[in-house]
Specification:
The structure is a single chain. By secondary structure, this protein is α/β, with parallel strands linked by helices. The chain has five helices and five strands. Strand 3, helix 3 and strand 4 form a beta-alpha-beta unit. Helix 3 crosses helix 5. The longest helix has 19 residues. It comes from Mucilaginibacter roseus. Pfam families: SPOUT_MTase.
């Protein structure tokens, strides 16, 4: 199974990039992982929030295939414990999903077309985080999930 983290925009802060790189390096022992950053929209001042979401949706939908299992990182999604998330990842690994794509949207969230395409939604918290920070939090939770699956001493109950 392959996992892709598809994001709108780049991680700008060096401390976040360093944290992401740390966990990406660790994850290479468990899974094929791709980080795919889509370019942020330019000249958005003349665009409404809905227009921005629609343009981002066009970019997102071009990067996924009909066979991909798509999970949106979205505040309206299900909240799982780390162990529940590990169980979800494990089910995908032993199931039919050969490619799971997690998507972090832009600052205004997702267009309805992306919601329609998604197979699932996952929330990391009831709190709202910057889409920059969500990347690090998610990558760490993905690493934690694999250590739980493998029974390694990273996660403590």
């Amino acid at each position: 199974m392959k996992i892709t983290l598809l994001t709108v925009g780049k991680t700008e802060d060096s401390y976040l990039r360093e944290g992401i790189e740390k966990y990406v390096k660790r994850l290479k022992h468990y899974i094929k992982l791709e980080l795919l950053d889509l370019a942020e929209l330019k000249n958005t001042k003349a665009l409404s929030q809905d227009q921005q979401k629609a343009r981002e949706a066009e970019m997102i939908l071009k990067k996924i295939t009909p066979l991909d299992y798509v999970i949106l990182l979205d505040e309206k999604g299900s909240e799982l414990s780390s162990t529940q998330f590990a169980n979800t990842i494990n089910k995908h690994m032993v199931g039919a999903a050969s490619h799971v794509v997690f998507i972090v949207g832009g600052p205004y969230g997702f267009d309805s077309s992306v919601y329609q395409r998604a197979n699932n939604k996952l929330s990391l918290s009831h709190m709202t985080f910057s889409h920059q920070m969500v990347r690090l939090f998610f990558i760490e939770q993905l690493y934690r999930a694999f250590t739980i699956i493998k029974g390694e001493p990273y996660h403590h109950e």
